[in-house]
Each structure stands twice: as structure tokens, then as C-alpha cells.
Amino acid sequence: MPFKDILQTVVDNVDGAVGAVVMGYDGIAIDDFIKTENSFDLQLLTAEYAAVLKEVKGTAEVLKSGLLQEVAISTERSTAVARVINEDYFVLLVIAMGGNFGKGRFYLRREAPKLAEALQ
Amino acid sequence: MPFKDILQTVVDNVDGAVGAVVMGYDGIAIDDFIKTENSFDLQLLTAEYAAVLKEVKGTAEVLKSGLLQEVAISTERSTAVARVINEDYFVLLVIAMGGNFGKGRFYLRREAPKLAEALQ
Fold it and tell me: Are B19 and B38 in contact (CB under 8 A)?
């Protein structure tokens, strides 16, 4: 299944989701699926958070708290949930305020292995 | 109510919680409540994550995505949920793998205003 279809599955199934991106820790996106009716600059947000994730990943390794799996960042306007796919890539889902965070986490966890497969 | 009592309320009510800390973005803890029967180096973990949080806070401001409210970091062994108290301080709760993440978020949200009051 192509990246975009997997990302669309996640976005379509999560109330309040505005878009999802597959991206490298270098901040370069592979593919995305973005709902047209939103005002978020998803590319910018993801690129900024890629740097944060890279640091968190390093911190988790330093702390020997096991491999990083997920980072969720909530602000007044939105929640961004990033799930690690493999050593080099992660998937990030942005949910507008009031959206279904739990469902977002569930779908990312469910679809991440398919993204890992598509990245082979 | 003293800090420790508020932190204990959070830890005692969340399945799998191993400890909670009130800390400044400079990485210096004000107070903590830690269950004795755990192997986590909570002080080290919190100090490391303080740096991460500071960066995320800056990023959220740059992105104009509203004030930062919460950051959750999950690894293979644990989840650390940090909730912003005010401009200078946050509270961090560490939950062991398999613990109740949703309840952890709920109690942090509920108790954060009391911590803000205690910090006045």
C-alpha cells in the first residue's frame, strides 16, 4: 500500500485529525496526507518537531529507558503525535483541539508496521 | 496543600505511576514524590527532559501553535508525561510500561492548578 493511502487511513479514522506525514529525522518528508480544510502549516510544524524528536531519541538512549516509541506534544490549538517507524523515520499526526487523541495513538500504532514495510 | 501531597495524590491514583516531580525549566526540582519500589532514576530522567521541554516550548511559540500544555514521551520501558504549570515550572509524571496513561494525563490536568497556586 502506498504511503499516502496508509496516512489517509489514519487521518480519516481520527476525529479532528488535520493531516499526517512520514518524515526522516533530518526533517525531510517522504509523503503526507493533509485535509484541505485546515489552516495548519503541517510541513513547517513537522520539520520543527523533527529536530525535537531527534533530541528526545538521543535522550532516551542516554537514559537507557529503552527505544523511543512515541512523542505527543499538546498546545492550546492542537496535538501532534509522532510515532517512531524505524531508526530513520517517524510518522506524525496532527489533531486539532478537541479531537480524539486516544484514537490517534491507536491508529498510528496500528499503521506504523505497514509504513515500516513500505519503507523497505 | 504542600507540593508533596499534591504529587502523591497523582501518583497514588494512577496505575503504574512510579513518581512525580515539580521542576523548573532550568532542570532544578522543587519537590518530588517517588514510590520506593522502583528502579527509575527519576531525578536524572526529569533533568534530561527539562532541556527537551524547554526546546519544545520555544518551538511551540515559534510555530504560533499556542501555549504549550503537555508533552508525553513513551519508550519501551515507560511513559513520561509533563504538564506545564506556568512560565517557569512543569510537573512530570513517570508511568511504567502498561500503566494507565489516560488517567495520568487526567490527574495532571486536574492537579496542575493546585500546583500553580502552591507556587505563588
Answer: yes
Residue type, A23: M
Structural domains for chain A:
3-118 (3.30.450.30)
Exposed, middle or buried by CB within 10 Å (0-12, 13-18, 19+), for A120?
exposed
Kindly give the pairing relationship between strand A89-96 and strand A17-24.
antiparallel
Residues of B in contact with A102 (CB under 8 A): 102
Position B43 pLDDT exceeds 80: no
Q: What's the pLDDT score for residue A39? A: 62
Residues from chain B contacting residue A72 (CB–CB below 8 Å): 70-72
Is this prediction's ipTM beyond 0.85?
yes
Cα separation, B96 vs A118, in Å, equals 31
